[in-house]
Amino acid sequence: MTRAFPFEPAFVSETLLREAAEPASALAAAGVAIEHDAPNPGEGLRRLVRFFGEKGLLRLVTDARFGGAHERMSSIGLCLVRERLGHASPLVELAFAMQGLGSYPMTLAASEHGSSDAAEVWLPKVVRGEAVAAFALTEAQAGTDLGGLATSAVRRGDAYVLTGEKRFISNAGVADVYVVFARTEDGKVSAFAVDARSEGLSVRPQAVLGGHPIGEVVLDGVVVPEAMRLGAEGRGMALALGTLHRFRPTVGAAALGFAQRALDESVAHVSSRHQFGAPLSELPLVQAKLGEMACELEAARLLVYRAAAAIDAGGDRGEVARKGSMAKLVATEGAQKVIDAAVQLHGGAGVLTTGIVARLYEEVRALRIYEGTNDVQKILIARELLR
Ligand SMILES: Cc1cc2nc3c(=O)[nH]c(=O)nc-3n(C[C@H](O)[C@H](O)[C@H](O)COP(=O)(O)OP(=O)(O)OC[C@H]3O[C@@H](n4cnc5c(N)ncnc54)[C@H](O)[C@@H]3O)c2cc1C
To answer: Fewest Cβ atoms closer than 10 Å to its Cβ: which of 40, 135, 296, 311?
Structure first.
């Protein structure tokens, strides 16, 4: 059973619902078919990206001047799509989300700087689904503490030479373009659009829970033209943090999609599974569990769309960031609880690896870690209170 989006009307306009959620709903089912048809997750992901590009869905990941649907990328639009696709399949959702995360530093740099060769070259391809994007920030000594970032960018004439290793990079080995964050000789961080075919760039796959394509990206003296630097030298950290700020509530939206699916599957299961001569749904403890799951989900949904609306409206950055951190924290923690309850309600069927509920259980875990761990979100919220 698929429910309509029970949104707070003040946060989500009818137009956005039509533009984002309706096509996403229509495309989700087709996307799942593509995913299941592909021989491996990387191949599935590339085909999904092409498909979403052809259908116009990727117009939501950038601004109008680069082929985007809105003058400025709409956070609510992204959340609507991520929630809907997340309901259909975590891999389908990831294929969409990474086109946004992986390319947004280019959009941001171009909007700050007035123009950007990297944005002109790559964003139209990202929007058409012809290029897969990746965001390469994390390193062995630069996880939560980005002060440890060690990848270097040494100026050589009108180019830079990049050397270092990134890890936990989603889409590694599948991407056509990596936005790489590296330190120039003055110690500041700059961002670069690096063509995946560049000499000296290689990928070591990593395996995480779920079917997420991910890996280490090794840069061994990769030459990147100066024109592929995003914005001014030294703007890299601001672009990285600005991108994460923009995408944080959307991670919560993906979690809502996963959790809504788990709840829908649970309602269907307890209605059809009979024990003691009656459906499980007639047991008061089962009903109580469903009630708790629904409350967890709806409370998180309000925080997610409130945060997205705050980003779209602008305003005090600290206040907007606090709402984004709350949304990511509450929605991903809540989704974990809802999905765990769904596994329990399914009994043995809940841990069958062929089932969607077990798959959601595996996939939801990383959402509490990436784009700023949930522990760090708590600290950011507290800092804002203490400001
Ligand atoms: C599936 C997946 C996909 C990812 N995709 C990408 C990607 O596409 N691009 C990219 O650049 N990165 C990506 N990452 C990396 C991710 O952003 C990092 O894993 C995350 O920022 C945490 O860094 P870390 O793993 O080094 O953990 P650490 O920073 O070592 O943290 C370990 C633990 O210590 C806690 N901790 C650290 N500092 C503090 C503190 N100050 N106060 C309290 N607790 C603290 C953390 O909360 C955590 O619980 C991905 C990770 C995963 C799991």
So the answer is: 40
- Its pTM stands at 0.95
How remote is the CA of residue 114 from the centroid of ligand 1, in Å? 33
Q: Which of 182-191, 200-209, 297-306, 312-321 has the lowest mean pLDDT?
A: 312-321
Mean pLDDT of 165-181: 97
Position 4 scores a pLDDT of: 46
**CATH topology classification for 237-386:** Butyryl-CoA Dehydrogenase, subunit A; domain 3 (1.20.140)
Ligand 1 atom closest to residue 212's alpha carbon, by position in its atom list: 1
135-159 average pLDDT score:
97
Q: What is the mean pLDDT of residues 19-29?
A: 77
Pick the residue whose CA is nearest to atom 40 on ligand 1: 376
| Fold of the domain spanning 134-233 | Butyryl-CoA Dehydrogenase, subunit A; domain 2 (2.40.110)
Q: Whose CA is nearest to atom 35 of ligand 1?
A: 375
Residue 311, token pair as written in the block: 């980003």
Task: Quickly state the pLDDT bin for 10 (edges 50, 70, 90).
Answer: low
- CB 136 less than 6 A from any atom of ligand 1: yes
pLDDT digits (tens, 9 = 90+) for 265-277: 999 999 999 999 9
Query: Would you state the pLDDT for residue 212?
Result: 82
CATH 1.10.540.10 in the chain is located at: 14-131
Nearest CA to ligand 1 atom 41: 376
